[in-house]
Amino acid sequence: MQPATPAKPLPDDPAILLRTVQVQVLDTPEQRERAQQLLAADHYLGGVQAVGEQVHYAVSDAQGEWVAVLIFAAAAKHLRPRDQWIGWSDEQRRRRLALVVNNVRCLLLPERTVPNLGSVVLSRILARLSEDWQARYGHPVLVVETFVDPERFHGGVYRGSSWTELGLTKGHGRKARDYYETHERPKRLFARELVRNARRSLQAEHLKPALAAVEAKVPVRSTLKAAELESLSDHFRAVPEYRRRMGQYPLYALLGITACAYLAGAPRGQKDLAAFARRLSSRQRAALGVRRNARDEYPAPSQPTFSRMFAHVAEEEIEATLLRHQSQVRGAPAPEEIVVLDGKVPKHSGGLNVVTAVTAPGLHYLGCEVVADKSNEIPAVRALCERLELDGRLVSIDALHTQSETARQIVLEHGGDYVMTVKGNQPTVQAAVQAGVPDPASPFLPR
């Protein structure tokens, strides 16, 4: 074995080292292995198997000799002092935790250090940490945290780099991605904003567009309590069961899970619903009506279970249930409100175009109709009008539906009135309207 090349001596003037230190990201397995060996030899905690997103750094002098090793990785899930300092809610923390990172190791090599090296190293790295994270993981980071053992250190390096001490932890250490053990040695917690107003961004109702991708990667979950879920599922007990033997997943439980996913803003394909159901807690699944199995568990329905439900469930019964629930919660819509019919492709519809009827301005849901394949919204609107109570109501629809047959049905068959838009693609109708209908002096539709 070749003897190790002796390290080059430090400069006589420590200020030279502080001015010339260079920071590099450790990208190769060999570089990271060397960093782990140095940590094992000289850090009181030894090496670290970081979880999740992580960036390793080495800091070297002008001759390329390493003088420090630092590792940043996923932040701790639950830290009450940090969460109070940021000011975000539990759900915001769950969705935005990737914007916070933890300095899990900071080692100044004993034989290569000089006074103030720690503060200089931290300042250099923190100046680029967010950009490095962006380059590697496609998003920046806003806040950095770290733990200091009060029996060994006083945290002067961090305070000297403008970190804020937030208090003591409860004495738990991460052993795996989602597993913590008690070690009865509380640590001092320090944190620092990496960008201006970082905490304000993390506690905002909506993240800035540049940060929104972080939340988009986090699976949606339900935040409803068991009592709320039980009440939600109970409304679907009126929907007739399509099976002779319902087993562990009554229809009302499956519909309750689907409604719960809708309220949470989760995708609602069969595969998505199965994944959403798995993220529900056992208590939540029990509250929704899932029955206990032989192992005393409340299992999650599978994708085929949801597929069979969608193939057999009576859509009109579900709509009637939703309307009864709305009437119970909100009462009937005011008779003077306009009925607005509009076609959209909802976010989680799988590309289906759906015509929906709501009142304005109260936004009471009245019903919907899926546009048939290889058709358009005109027949769907007419079919939906057949199910609506339009007697004495004003119906508003866009220019596509400015059709004599649609107008006739609304007035003569359903007893309503209409407001239709006329555009230049119907020149004869447009000329007749301009000639026979006076221009209103002011808007007459409610805002």
Describe the structure.
A seven-stranded mixed sheet has the order 1-2-3-4-5-9-6, with helices on both faces. It contains 17 helices and 14 strands. The protein folds into three domains: 14-216, Aminopeptidase, CATH 3.40.630.30; 226-316; 338-436, Ribonuclease H-like superfamily/Ribonuclease H (Nucleotidyltransferase, domain 5, 2-Layer Sandwich), CATH 3.30.420.10. Helix 9 packs across helix 10, helix 9 runs parallel beside helix 12 and helix 11 (270-279) crosses helix 13. Helices cover 38% and strands 19% of the residues. The chain has 447 residues and is of the alpha+beta class. Mean pLDDT is 89; it is low at 175-180.
Give the topology.
Layout: H1 14-20, E1 22-25, H2 29-42, E2 54-60, E3 66-74, H3 80-86, H4 90-96, E4 100-108, H5 117-137, E5 143-148, H6 156-159, E6 164-168, E7 172-176, E8 179-182, E9 188-193, H7 198-203, H8 212-216, H9 226-234, H10 251-264, H11 270-279, H12 282-288, H13 303-312, H14 315-330, E10 338-344, E11 354-360, E12 365-370, H15 377-387, E13 394-397, H16 404-413, E14 417-420, H17 427-436
Parallel strand pairs: 4-5, 10-13, 13-14
Antiparallel strand pairs: 1-2, 2-3, 3-4, 5-9, 6-9, 7-8, 10-11, 11-12
